[in-house]
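queue> holo job accepted (heme C)
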Amino acid sequence: MTAVQMMRNLSGLGLLVMITACDTSTENIEYPEAGSPAAKLFLEKCSFCHVAPAPTAHAARVWPGVLQRMQMRMKAKGMPSLNNRTLADILDYLQRNAAELEPKK
Ligand code: HEC
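queue> job finished
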């Protein structure tokens, strides 16, 4: 095996480890309204770059600012940003399950 081949094998392994690590970390988060259209939309749009955060990660009033920043992150990556309808649905989902409305330990 040449050095180049070995490097390729190693980077492949690195990717695999990363994917596996991501999988295990989602297991610890409980997403409310599991299986509902809103929860599915949220998971689809918000677990692309990182593990989707728990809605309780922020109080309701903080979520709009976070979503705005995420729109910028998507644009920066050359991804289409979310349309107003999608954004409103995700914000709704996050806010009605946010820390402030329903405090969870
Ligand atoms: C284009 C990639 C991308 C997508 C898609 C994305 N994020 Fe992020 N997100 C990031 C990056 C990069 C960071 C770390 C830097 C930062 O905090 O802005 C981050 C950090 C976060 C954080 C932690 C920081 C904080 O303020 O709590 C939360 C929460 C978050 N994202 C929520 C979301 C939600 C909700 C969505 C779906 C609408 C989403 N993200 C979609 C890239 C993305």
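queue> Residues 45-46, 48-50, 53, 57, 66-67, 69-70, 73-74, 77, 79, 90 surround heme C (CB under 6 Å).
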